[in-house]
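hey m, so remember when u said the tokens were messed up on ur end? i reran from scratch. heres the input so u can diff it against urs
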Amino acid sequence: MFTTTGSRGLYKAPLSKSLLLVVNGLTVLLTLLPQYQDMFVYNLQAVVQQHQLWRLLCGRLVCLDLKDSFCSSLLIYNFRIFERRFGSRKFASFLLGTWCLSALMDFLLVCAFQHLFDYEVEELSAGLLAPVFSLFVPFYLSIPRMPVTQILGHIPITNKSLVYIVGLQLLTSSPFMWLLALSGLISGVLYHSNVLWLQKILFVPAWVSFIGRYILEPLFSSSQPSSETPVGMGATLDIQRQQRMDLLDQQLLLAQYNEARRNVRPQPQAGLLQWTRLFPSLRHRGQNRPPAQPQPQAQAQTQQSTQPPLLDNSHVAEEQVARLVEMGFSRTDALEALRASNNDINMATNFLLQH
């Protein structure tokens, strides 16, 4: 049912893999060593009254409840699609930004709850829960729904249903989990909509991304799964399941492309992706184009008047174009991909590999 992320495991998702391994490893370790669990309790009163600011880091990073750890791990594994599409740095910036915003929202919501109902909330569930809930915002807005089946012939089940069910299970795991969920959703909306230019204020610096790319990424990177089909006895059930999930991935990309074409406007807006400028030009690569034929002078003048203007290279870094050309892509495709991805070489590389 986790069909929105495909069947390639944690390939091209080193940050998601590190969160799953390190955070869950600490959860298991604290379960075996309960005498150290008090250091990771998310106690708001201790932060405010005793100024134990270190609890904001410890209490909002490691889960102390195995049920919360299991559900949040399932959601992180599903949301790894955003790291694949936008790159590890932007995915880490989203988690960092929503983590900081949700820390402020936790205190505001607790104060509002105390003012309205005269009840003081001392502790909240520990773990990376609010940023996980914040990922539901881009999941709801950017992942299209695709019907999978129906229950009793009336209740539709889509590719996103199980994700929401797991989120609901996490929401009901403790009495005040709804405060963390509301804090995460508010933080996700604020950061995703870039209110007050939060994406330019709360982000992972380039030098941190450089260190993670060359030191931490080799430790948590996953190899590309093989797509070869065995010969002899035929495909196994796992291979057949993988083929079905790959087919659903292709249908998802096609649905996103059609939706982007329906929402096209005459004046493209500046944003993260400019779909209308990316896909039409990348459907015809250089080696697939027919060879140019000599044209008479009259026809050449007519075609010259109907051809679109040349690409403006002023906003594209030549260094990044050269890197993409060295990887085997044509210069035209590299320019269009970099322009459509706002000069993000990771995103441009992903789309050039996929199309």
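this time it looks ok to me. Residues 1-5, 227-235, 264-314 have pLDDT under 50 and may be disordered. if urs says something different then somethings off w ur setup not the seq
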